[in-house]
Design goal:
By secondary structure, the protein is an alpha+beta fold. The chain folds into four domains: 85 residues, Immunoglobulins (Immunoglobulin-like, Sandwich), CATH 2.60.40.10; 115 residues, Sandwich (Immunoglobulin-like), CATH 2.60.40.10; 257 residues, Alpha-Beta Barrel (TIM Barrel); 241 residues, Sandwich (Immunoglobulin-like). It contains 16 helices and 37 strands. The chain has an eight-stranded parallel barrel with strand order 16-19-22-25-26-27-28-29, surrounded by four helices. Strands 30-31-32-37-34-35 form a six-stranded antiparallel sheet. It has a four-stranded antiparallel sheet with strand order 1-2-6-5, with no helix packed on it. Helix 6 packs parallel to helix 7, helix 9 packs parallel to helix 11 and helix 15 runs parallel beside helix 16. It is elongated, with a radius of gyration of 31 Å. Monomer.
Length: 748
């Protein structure tokens, strides 16, 4: 405690006239007036602003001995007590208000807390100082407990902490400006966790801004309320050391990765209790075993950083260091992550550094200037989403965002970040017409600040969280998105293959009679399939805004719609690339996704819907257990076309290889409702090819056409291969056949 008391105020002559409260409030340096001051040798004054009290008395450190009563000075009530002391007094304030007596420490009796090194590190993108030094941090100073508040607001004229502990009165807790870094700080003793707070800011031009939530708050109120919540830094008794150690040694490009994308607010609800959300802990008990049973390796959460508007699905976050309170506390969220790890499931967070909403309590116009965003709307405003764009070129903003990525990976043990809307960050002319954007210093449309930020974020994420991954949602042909930064890439681990998604969904939505004219939509993706480390996404974006559900995109009668969907899933799981499926796809959700409602779990009473779910489970198990289907997902040498040009029959076939050249799987899709009898396909090796997956199997709701468990390769050359299979290809179906070196065996 003493280190924060020594030298906090130097001796100064007593002013001729006591300053007014207004003068103190607007001075930017309340410590120059408030707190203890030696006005002459041995004579001390204690000055305080304590509105709406009956009496305030200065007590000795014992909290009982009266040193002096405080007198209210005109014109507007500054409280002053004067007394003699041989050394700087260690005192308390006895406050009487409405017959209630409190004894408190004076915030203005403490010195500075942030060192010069701290202030420098806050602006260093490789540092964790943003979330270890900024925000509200619980401190225990030799038995004096309270919170140290710090906030970056370099252009503000005055900043105050307001909250439940001071009746939201900005005169009570004026902060000290640290000119070195534009940081304001104040230690407020004798306040407890779980109370609400915000910052009251007088802007650059003297205007009082809307109360601002803490940009580094670790918890926030349940929307629509907007206050930050006092929390100690997120702490949890983690028991996942084995998971973290194992993860650090994982080669994710080689490993199976099948991701279940999930919106926690609508996966399932509790209708008998007002249609309420499940909590993080309830989701740990219900969602995680479900995902485990279906064979997914990861859960990807739509954004859970605190956001005000349900309809944004989390993509317009305000408090980016706080898990949303909709589902529980930060500790509850940590428990959810640990439960996933205990089940062998990784957790990926959908992370949104591209933009932020213009809600008045958020980051926009934070200190009365465009602090986090560009001032020029051609650089700083998203026309599509009505949101602000971060000023990535500002060192402190880059540090704020890079530290946020690090925070979620380190503090919550998350296994990856899926970075939203990367294309909108990379291009200055993204969704803008000529004249609506400003070229970079070289005259180009690349956002150089965003590129630097993305590279730095990826470097820091991989350096500080071994085994974690980053994933880009990037929809253009930007080169090297998933290549290392030292080769000129952006440094992501993986990239969503948006082109594959759009092409193949366009194809599968066609009536089979017309598919022969769109065959290229199936094959085009292989021209670039290994240019990046791709994830094949069937994401939430494909089942909203009038697009209908995946099942709803399928043509034909009921049987054909389900068969099409099953064939498409088989095609996807057999295709090179990691897998991602948005919740509901696995049960063939009939209607479009609605964020306000639970999935239609009653559909599983139908054999068709249950069959699709069973197929997804088996596809995941096959994908994980068959090395040829995952070991070379990102390598061209793991793929060979067998049949790419049979557009007349809408049949397509390819070969997948694992690291062992004899680890072979054959994938065959028939996208017409016609059985293809005696269809010959060349294969590289002799032996028995076990039918590991047949999407037309009766257990999935199919017609049970197939090959009786497998086919022996004949010594008949075909398709440039020395051997061949003669197959019965079911209608609207995908087969996955595996070279079985031990002979025939049961289906997976």
């Amino acid at each position: 405690m003493d280190q924060h008391r020594r030298g906090s105020q130097s001796a100064s002559p007593r002013p001729a006239e006591p300053p007014s409260v207004a003068e103190i409030v607007n001075s930017g340096d309340p410590f120059s007036v408030l707190g203890p001051h030696e006005i002459s040798p041995g004579q001390w004054e204690i000055r305080a602003i304590v509105p709406d009290v009956d009496a305030v008395t200065v007590l000795d450190r014992d909290g009982q001995t009266v040193l002096a009563p405080m007198e209210r000075m005109p014109p507007d009530g500054l409280l002053v007590a004067s007394f003699h002391a041989s050394e700087r007094p260690d005192y308390r304030l006895r406050i009487e208000r409405h017959s209630i007596v409190e004894i408190r420490h004076d915030p203005y009796s403490f010195g500075t807390f942030l060192s010069h090194d701290d202030l420098v590190r806050i602006g260093d993108p490789t540092s964790d100082a943003v979330y270890t030094k900024l925000g509200a941090h619980f401190l225990d100073l030799g038995g004096i407990q309270g919170f140290l508040f710090t906030v970056w607001a370099p252009n503000a004229r005055r900043v105050s902490v307001v909250g439940d502990f001071n009746s939201w009165d900005g005169r009570c807790h004026l902060m000290r400006r640290r000119h070195e870094g534009g940081i304001w700080e104040l230690f407020i003793p004798d306040i407890a966790p779980e109370q609400r707070y915000k910052f009251e800011i007088i802007g650059l031009h003297g205007n009082l801004l809307a109360l601002k939530a803490d940009p580094i708050a670790f918890a926030a109120e349940h929307p629509p309320e907007t206050a930050s919540i006092l929390k100690s830094a997120p702490s949890f008794d983690w028991q996942d050391s084995e998971w973290m150690k194992s993860r650090a040694g994982e080669n994710h490009r080689k490993a199976p990765m099948s991701i279940y994308e999930c919106h926690l607010g609508s996966w399932s609800r509790v209708p008998e209790e007002g249609n309420r959300y499940l909590t993080y802990r309830e989701l740990a008990v219900r969602l995680i075993p479900y995902v485990k049973d279906l064979g997914f390796t990861h859960i990807e959460l739509l954004p859970i950083t605190e956001y005000p508007f349900d309809g944004s699905w989390g993509y317009q976050p305000i408090s980016v260091y706080a898990p949303t309170s909709r589902f529980g506390t930060p500790e509850d969220f940590a428990a959810f992550v640990e439960a996933a790890h205990a089940a062998g499931i990784g957790v990926i967070l959908d992370w949104v550094p591209a933009h932020f909403p213009n809600d008045p309590h958020g980051l926009s116009y934070f200190d009365g200037t465009h602090l986090y965003e560009h001032a020029d709307p051609r650089l700083g405003f998203h026309q599509d989403w009505g949101t602000y764009i971060y000023n990535f070129e500002r060192r402190e903003v880059m540090s704020f965002l890079v530290a946020n990525a690090r925070f979620w990976l380190e503090r919550y043990h998350l296994d990856g970040l899926r970075v939203d809307a990367v294309a909108s960050m990379l291009y200055l002319d993204y969704s803008r017409k000529a004249g609506e954007w400003i070229p970079n210093r070289y005259g180009g449309n690349e956002n150089l600040g965003a590129i630097d930020f993305i590279r730095k974020m990826n470097e820091v994420a991989y350096a500080t969280s071994p085994g974690a991954i980053t994933i880009a949602e990037e929809s253009t042909a930007w080169p090297g998105v998933s290549q290392p930064t030292y080769t000129g890439g952006l440094g992501f681990g993986f990239k969503w293959n948006m082109g594959w998604m759009h092409d193949t969904l366009r194809y599968i939505s066609k009536d089979p009679v017309f598919r022969q004219y769109h065959h290229h939509d199936l094959t085009f993706g292989l021209l670039y399939a290994f240019s990046e480390n791709f994830i094949l996404p069937l994401s939430h974006d494909e089942v909203v805004h009038g697009k209908g559900s995946l099942l709803g995109k399928m043509p034909g009668d009921q049987w054909q719609r389900f068969a099409n969907l099953r064939a498409y899933f088989g095609f996807m799981w057999g295709h090179p690339g990691k897998k991602l499926l948005f919740m509901g796809g696995e049960i063939a959700q009939e209607r479009e996704w609605n964020h306000d409602e639970s999935l239609d779990w009653h559909l599983l009473d139908s054999s068709y819907h249950k069959g699709v779910q069973s197929l997804v489970r088996d596809l995941n198990h096959a994908y994980q257990s068959i090395p040829a289907l995952h070991e070379r997902d990102c390598e061209a040498r793991g793929f060979e076309w067998l049949v790419s040009d049979d557009r007349d029959n809408s049949v397509i076939a390819w070969l997948r290889r694992g690291d062992d050249e004899t680890s072979v799987a054959i994938v065959v899709s028939n996208f017409t409702p016609v059985v293809r009898e005696a269809y010959r396909i060349g294969v590289p090796l002799p032996g028995f090819y076990r039918e590991a997956v047949n999407t037309d199997a009766g257990q999935y709701g199919g017609s049970n056409v197939g090959n009786l468990g497998g086919v022996v390769a004949e010594d008949v050359p075909s398709h440039g291969r020395p051997c061949s299979l003669t197959l019965t290809i079911p209608p609207l179906a995908t087969l996955i056949l595996v070279l079985d070196h031990e002979g025939s065996g049961p289906n997976i």
